């Protein structure tokens, strides 16, 4: 139950850091907040979500029903939870160019998972390699922080989940969203239902281009 995950009993542990639980919990919170804002008269002209939040955004925009969104997020979390452990993610306090240079020669093991801000980049991949790279960056004065995750999201380690996700998405009734959705991997608004389905597969291994998504919105009058 959602409440026992968010508010475990005293002395009990919550599985919130296990992605099979994290993803549905994030979806539920995001959707609930949107409905709360709507009850106050705050209705979006454009929708965007970060990583797993993109599923909520698609649902809020009308690209799929709430029931399909719930089925999709539960399947997505379960598929990723079933992958082998050993992946890691780290938030690096540096821009893309610095991080890309550090990753040179290790692209098969670690990738850029998210470009969140001009000086904040997330990397993901094989745990020991992520640790080694952050240590090397630390020697150069670049700070980083390990993220509390069960797997290395938005990395090549997610490919089996991306392949399986195609079958799940074939069961979802996608439609053109009522409002534009700024997709993470495209950093641009999407209105085509078939394209949205493809992007939801691509974003499992692809990077979250959050900085560019926010920039697009700012340049197009979204406040």
Number of helical elements: 9
Instruction: Going across the biggest sheet, name each strand in turn.
Output: 3-4-2-5
Strand percent estimate: 5-15%
Radius of gyration: 18 Å
- Molecular shape: globular
Helical residue percent band? 40-55%
Uncertain runs are none
| Secondary-structure-derived class | alpha+beta
Note the run of SSEs as H and E. Answer: HHEHHEHEEHEHEEHH
Describe the structure.
- With 223 residues, the chain is α+β, with helices and mostly antiparallel strands.
- Helices cover 48% and strands 14% of the residues.
- The chain has nine helices and seven strands.
- The protein has a four-stranded antiparallel sheet with strand order 3-4-2-5.
- A hairpin with a 2-residue loop joins strand 3 and strand 4.
- The model has no long low-confidence stretch (mean pLDDT 93).
Which features characterize this protein?
223 residues, 7 strands, three-stranded mixed β-sheet, 48% helix, alpha+beta, single chain, four-stranded antiparallel β-sheet, 9 helices
Overview in brief:
This protein is an alpha+beta fold and 223 residues long.
């Amino acid at each position: 139950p959602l409440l026992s995950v968010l508010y475990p009993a005293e002395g009990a542990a919550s599985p919130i850091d296990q992605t099979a639980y994290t993803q549905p919990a994030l979806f539920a919170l995001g959707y609930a907040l949107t409905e709360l804002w709507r009850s106050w008269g705050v209705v979006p002209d454009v929708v965007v979500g970060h990583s797993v939040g993109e599923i909520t955004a698609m649902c809020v925009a009308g690209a799929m029903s709430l029931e399909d969104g719930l089925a999709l997020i539960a399947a997505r979390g379960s598929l990723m939870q079933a992958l082998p452990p050993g992946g890691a993610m780290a938030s690096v306090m540096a821009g893309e160019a610095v991080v890309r240079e550090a990753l040179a020669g290790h692209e098969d093991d670690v990738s850029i998972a998210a470009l969140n801000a001009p000086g904040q980049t997330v990397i993901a991949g094989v745990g020991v390699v992520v640790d080694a790279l952050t240590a090397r960056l630390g020697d150069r004065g670049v700070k980083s922080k390990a993220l509390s995750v069960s797997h290395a999201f938005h990395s090549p380690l997610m490919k089996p989940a991306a392949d399986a996700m195609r079958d799940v998405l074939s069961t979802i009734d996608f439609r053109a969203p009522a409002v534009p959705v700024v997709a993470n991997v495209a950093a641009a608004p999407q209105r085509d239902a078939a394209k949205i389905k493809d992007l939801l597969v691509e974003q499992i291994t692809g990077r979250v281009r959050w900085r560019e998504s926010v920039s697009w919105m700012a340049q197009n009058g979204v406040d």
